Amino acid sequence: QVQLVESGGGSVQAGGFLRLSCAASGRTEDTYYMGWWRQAPGKEREFVSSIRLNGVNTHYIESVKGRFTISRDTAKNTAYLEMNSLKPEDTAVYYCAARSIADATYRYWGQGTQVTVSS
Fold this sequence. Notes:
Mean pLDDT: 96
Helix content: under 10%
Structural class: mainly beta
Number of strands: 11
Number of helices: 0
């Protein structure tokens, strides 16, 4: 069983910076892919970014490209999301997720951390 614990959320002004962390426990194989999703009030949860175990293959939603950077420390089994030039539309609860290479969808989810960006 994998447990994911996020941290690093908070409130910032537009243009600000936040760094989210997601510490995973459990088998490394079950966190082959780690990703970040977000859900804004009244909206569906959407994919933000993901990274493979090798730390090289990354994907981003178009609206965050060039502003957000995902990374992971395999020794600590921790993923990070550095968010620069934050915009009010980035306001959401951010969730960390993980899945094995065999899973078609993300199986494990964190509890979420609130990110609020004011204009």
